[in-house]
Amino acid sequence: MKIKVIDGMENIRVDKFLSSSLNLSRNIISKSKILVNGEETKLSYKLKLDDIVEIEVIEKKELKIVENNIKIKTIYEDEYLAVVDKPYGIVVHPSETSNDDSLVGSLVNKFEKLSDIDKLRPGIVHRLDKDTSGLIIIAKDNDTHLKLQEMFKSHNLEKVYLAILKGNFKYDKITVKSYIGRDKKNRKKMSSNTDKGRLAISHFEKIKSNDKISLVKVSIETGRTHQIRVHAKELNYPVLYDSLYTKDNNSKKRQQLHSYYLKFTHPITNNVIELKCEMPDDMIKTLKNFDLGDFDVRI
């Protein structure tokens, strides 16, 4: 598709021009090939009179659930819901950026029934980052799914993570409150440096530390994307091996973050469910490699 820049359209960024002219989302434009006068150009280019703008929209790939045989440990299960231990290294569900092995690809093989409100996310009520391990709740029917969603929306549950941070954490306890949204400079990151942030609250408590690393537990009142990773970074103690939020990373290792503890009232039976999930071997090994000893934490 070609568009000629006429009088009144000059001095406008090409991405804003395409968005208003063709009603395309910023996400689609950023993934498309854009030419001005036959040459590929940056989205920030400001148009001149009589420029010829071309855009080649990259078609969205069809998303589908790819079944897999990844072993998923069940921590709790009844007829309405289950809580599983998500391994690190797999996404929760297929997306435009990842249509490979996913947690749902294993769940559809593991459970006879799952909620189907979202066909690409059967059973999925909340998410964990690809390289975060630990407890995640799965709904088996739509009624339970909706009740669980409301529970998360109203923050009526306790969630505690274990994190290994870089450096000797100087606080015994500290609460971080900030408004988190997409970073202004890097859209892959979340940050407090944003125009449209949502309130995020994290409570950090040191378990033990040395001059190299610290083991902390983090209870969160909210569940914003990358919340703990952002707050740890902003405290100047980033999550160890977090390749997105620290330059000092190890590409062969994953961010040292684990969803360890959940406590909630069952949305159907009203029973109080309290669960813990063992720290995975790679994090235990990290503690030993940095001379921080064996893992021992009581919540």
UniProtKB/TrEMBL annotation:
Q: Which molecular function GO terms apply here?
A: RNA binding; rRNA pseudouridine synthase activity
Residues annotated as catalytic = 129
Which BP terms in the Gene Ontology apply to this protein? enzyme-directed rRNA pseudouridine synthesis
Q: What PROSITE patterns does this protein map onto? A: PSI_RLU (PS01129), S4 (PS50889)
Reactions catalysed according to its record: a uridine in RNA = a pseudouridine in RNA
Question: What Gene3D superfamilies does the record point to?
Answer: Pseudouridine synthase (3.30.2350.10), RNA-binding S4 domain (3.10.290.10)
Swiss-Prot/TrEMBL keywords: Isomerase, RNA-binding
Leading EC class: isomerase
Please name one Pfam family that this protein belongs to.
PseudoU_synth_2
Q: Which InterPro entries match?
A: PsdUridine_synth_cat_dom_sf, PsdUridine_synth_RluA-like_CS, PsdUridine_synth_RluC/D, PsdUridine_synth_RsuA/RluA, RluA_PseudoU_synthase, S4_RNA-bd, S4_RNA-bd_sf
Top-level taxonomic group = Bacteria
Domain named RNA-binding S4 is located at 12-71
Does Heme count among this protein's keywords?
no
Q: What is its EC number?
A: 5.4.99.-
- SUPFAM superfamilies (alphabetical): Alpha-L RNA-binding motif, Pseudouridine synthase
Explain the purpose of this protein. Responsible for synthesis of pseudouridine from uracil.
Family annotation (NCBIfam families): rluA_subfam
Family note: Belongs to the pseudouridine synthase RluA family.
Q: What is this protein called?
A: Pseudouridine synthase
Q: Which organism is it from?
A: Oceanivirga miroungae
